[in-house]
Design a protein that fits this description.
The complex is a heterodimer of chains A (279) and B (409).
Chain A (H helix, E strand, L loop, with lengths): L8 H12 L3 H23 L3 H15 L4 H16 L3 H31 L1 H16 L2 H12 L3 H26 L2 H9 L4 H30 L1 H5 L6 H10 L3 H30 L1
Helix pairs in contact in A: 2-5, 2-8, 3-4, 4-13, 5-6, 5-8, 5-10, 6-8, 7-8, 8-10, 10-13, 12-13
Chain B lengths: L2 E12 L3 H9 L4 H8 L2 E12 L3 E5 L6 H8 L7 E6 L2 E2 L5 H10 L1 E4 L11 H10 L5 H14 L15 H14 L4 E5 L7 H18 L2 E6 L2 H7 L2 E6 L2 E6 L1 H6 L4 H7 L10 H4 E2 L3 E3 L5 H11 L3 E5 L5 E6 H10 L14 E2 L9 H5 L5 E5 L2 E6 L1 H8 L11 H8 L1
Parallel strand pairs in B: 3-8, 3-9, 6-7, 7-8, 12-13, 15-16
Antiparallel strand pairs in B: 1-2, 1-4, 4-5, 9-10, 11-17, 13-14, 16-17
Classes of the chains: A mainly alpha (279), B alpha/beta (409).
Chain lengths: 279, 409
């Protein structure tokens, strides 16, 4: 086994990352763009006072998620708890990061998924890349993210996007491929163009599956908040990270519970869009 | 009738080496041999036939015979490997995508076995789909879709979704969607095969009714011979991707081209297919205005029969006279058979299928008179009907002596 000298893989990757940092202008504008999205979302959520936003979210849950009383009460109590524990502003920050990462994932992921579904070759190339993105420990992304995007919210979002985007791509691909051949044949037989077939038949029929993928993406983005806090992404993750450093079990759980509540609300809301699409 | 679609040597090879397979096909190699040599499957093997304007042309074969592939070569849901399909002077097999799209939009619609409806669209918007993608404005397409839905009897279901309807109704939607484009040609791929037998029969009847009004050229795929015989003006039988025989239902039943077709048609209920025209013989009759009892007796003797039909100069059927009565009249020296005509005779029409005249045949001991506009066209003997149903040769017109005597006694 020791016939060969150790491959200088690390050195190669370092060289590559070093070389990439030359594209400073590109990364700077990207940083500004992503930063702008985050702060815009944050601004919108910070606009109403806490109590008003709380009421809006509770009402949204009630009407969008099928008028379930139990869930609505849970959301009401959960949000009240977050506010009571003093995590309201942190929650807004976390929400901003998660939503930004999710939006970027959808904007990039859905078209890639469509492309994969249309071309077998693209599927063969993209699938192993997705496996790589999902199995590589998420911490590893933080290192180059800092190199390219500095410290703060933006590298957190970028790392989240890389980690969270695969389900959207996979489910879009799956959803479009699942559309029955006879329906596709019907669309063709009536003389649809490629884009008519995509927008009038394939995407509507794949909608429920795509929504399931988006739901997964949001959940994964949320799971990244603690990790992202290590490179300065503010929010609930930071509270957990500090609690770990201070061996503060109570404080850790407080912030943890806030993340769980936020996760459940996001999950139920996005799932309700998926089931609506099915009906 | 004019030829609407002409199919010449259309061929489909599935696999990676179609050229090699085509060469082997030209050397008359079998499907199995080609599969062994090249790993390619012959889907359709040089099929050639013509479809006439306004007919229901049935392509019939068992599963794996290539019939569903063949119909998809018409609108190029499957790309043909070789050969051509001519419609209105254009070759479908080689036309560019844009022209093809135009043909699909305006000239050719398809109905699918499992309906192929869009589940997320309402019935109305399913039917509108073909018009919508042509960019027709909403008011106009709504009206056209409404008419198509009315044709298939689905008014009132516009706002439902496909999964709220039964199979038969869903297929009506499929049919309405195809009709909404007002195409010249309807491709129906096993359109009724997924329906249960009673509904299937209803749909067949309805298709025939609609066809009576619309006169489309319909290419209908089926694996069910009874269905083929019931609705087809002409039928083509396929086996292993090749066309074995094309002809009217009667031609195929009467003169199966080979053992395969013969085996196929063996169990058919012929009484549903054969018509009176098929088994009728030339009528022996006398013209009451110029022929009397003696001529009648002479004719009956010649024909070795015991009764004879009576017509007027215009060949209009008046009735029948029996030999015993005629000889009595002849002995009495009368000149006309007028007084002994039995006027209440059972009659049938040329187009009646044998099944529907069985009853009449059971309750009469004289041959059935075949009439058209009350004019005597021929007669049907019980023996000829039996012969036709048993699959034997049908007695040709005029050759009546033996059977005639048998059925007359």
């Amino acid at each position: 086994m020791e016939i060969l000298p150790k491959l200088p893989l690390a050195a190669w990757i370092d060289a590559f990352v070093e070389w990439l940092t030359n594209a400073e202008f590109f990364f700077d504008s990207l940083t500004n763009g992503i930063g702008w999205i985050i702060s815009s979302i944050e601004a919108v959520f910070s606009l109403p006072p806490a109590w008003l936003l709380l009421i809006i979210i509770v009402l949204l849950t009630y009407f969008l998620a099928g008028r379930k009383i139990g869930l609505t009460i849970f959301v009401l109590l959960g949000l009240f708890l977050i506010d009571n524990l003093g995590f309201w502003d942190d929650m807004i920050l976390t929400l901003s990061i998660v939503l930004t990462a999710s939006i970027i994932s959808i904007v990039i992921g859905v078209p890639i998924g469509i492309w994969m579904a249309k071309k077998g070759l693209v599927e063969n190339v993209v699938k192993p890349v997705l496996d790589f993105m999902q199995t590589m420990p998420a911490f590893v992304y933080l290192i180059p993210a800092v190199a390219f995007f500095g410290i703060g919210m933006v590298p957190g979002v970028v790392a989240s996007v890389i980690f969270a985007m695969p389900p959207t791509i996979r489910f879009t691909n799956l959803g479009i491929r699942q559309v029955s051949t006879e329906v596709i044949e019907a669309a063709d037989a009536f003389g649809s163009t490629g884009s008519q077939k995509l927008f009038k038949v394939q995407l509507p029929m794949a909608k429920a599956t795509i929504m399931a993928g988006i739901n997964q993406t949001i959940m994964l983005a949320l799971s990244m908040v603690v990790i992202a806090s290590m490179i300065g992404a503010q929010g609930l993750g930071t509270a957990v990270y500090f609690a770990v450093g201070r061996n503060d079990a109570g404080g850790g759980f407080e912030a943890g519970i806030a993340i769980v509540v936020l996760a459940i609300i996001l999950d139920r809301l996005t799932q309700s869009f998926g089931t609506k699409a099915k009906q | 009738m004019a030829v609407k679609i002409q199919v010449e040597n259309i061929t489909k090879i599935f696999g990676k080496k179609p050229k090699k397979a085509l060469e082997l096909l030209d050397q008359n190699q079998s499907k199995d041999a080609i599969l062994k040599a090249t790993g390619n499957t012959v889907g359709v093997n040089k099929a050639s036939f013509e479809v006439e304007d306004g007919e229901i042309f049935v392509i019939m074969g068992l599963s794996g015979s290539g019939k569903s592939t063949l119909v998809r070569l018409f609108n190029r849901l499957i790309e043909p490997t070789a050969g051509s399909v001519w419609i209105d002077g254009e070759n479908l097999a080689t036309m560019d995508q844009k022209t093809l799209r135009d043909v699909r939009r305006k000239k050719m619609s398809m109905v699918f076995q499992k309906f192929g409806l869009f589940p997320f669209r309402t019935i109305q918007s399913n039917v509108e789909y073909g018009l919508e993608i042509q960019g027709m404005d909403p008011a106009e397409r709504k009206e056209k879709a409404g008419k198509a839905l009315e044709l298939v009897g689905l008014q009132g279901y516009e706002n439902m979704h496909p999964d709220e309807l039964s199979g038969g109704m869903q297929q009506r939607v499929g049919l309405a969607r195809a009709l909404a484009n007002d195409p010249d040609v309807l491709l129906m791929d096993e359109a009724f095969s997924a329906l249960d037998p009673l509904i299937r029969k209803d749909m067949q009847d309805e298709l025939l009714d609609l066809q009576g009004k619309m006169r489309k050229t319909i290419i209908f795929i089926t694996h069910d011979l009874d269905e083929a015989l019931r609705i087809g003006d002409r039928i083509t039988i396929m086996k292993d991707g090749a066309v074995i025989q094309t002809g009217t239902p009667e031609q195929i039943l009467m003169h199966p081209k080979d053992d395969y077709v013969e085996k196929f048609v063996e169990d058919v209920d012929r009484s549903k297919v054969f018509t009176v025209e098929h088994v009728m013989s030339r009528a022996e009759a006398i013209n009451i205005e110029k022929e009397g009892p003696r001529v009648a007796l002479q004719r009956m003797k010649e024909g070795n029969i015991s009764s004879i039909f009576v017509t007027n100069r215009q060949k209009e059927l008046l009735g029948v006279v029996h030999s015993s009565d005629v000889s009595r009249l002849a002995q009495e020296g009368k000149d006309s058979v007028e007084e002994i005509i039995e006027r209440n005779v059972p009659t049938v029409e040329k187009g009646t299928v044998l099944k529907d005249m069985m009853n009449l045949l059971t309750y009469t001991n004289i041959p059935l008179a075949v009439v058209e506009d009350n004019k005597l066209k021929g007669i049907v003997f019980r023996g000829s009907v039996m012969a036709a149903l048993s699959g034997g040769e049908v007695i040709e017109h005029g050759n009546t002596s033996e059977t005639a005597a048998g059925s007359m006694d």
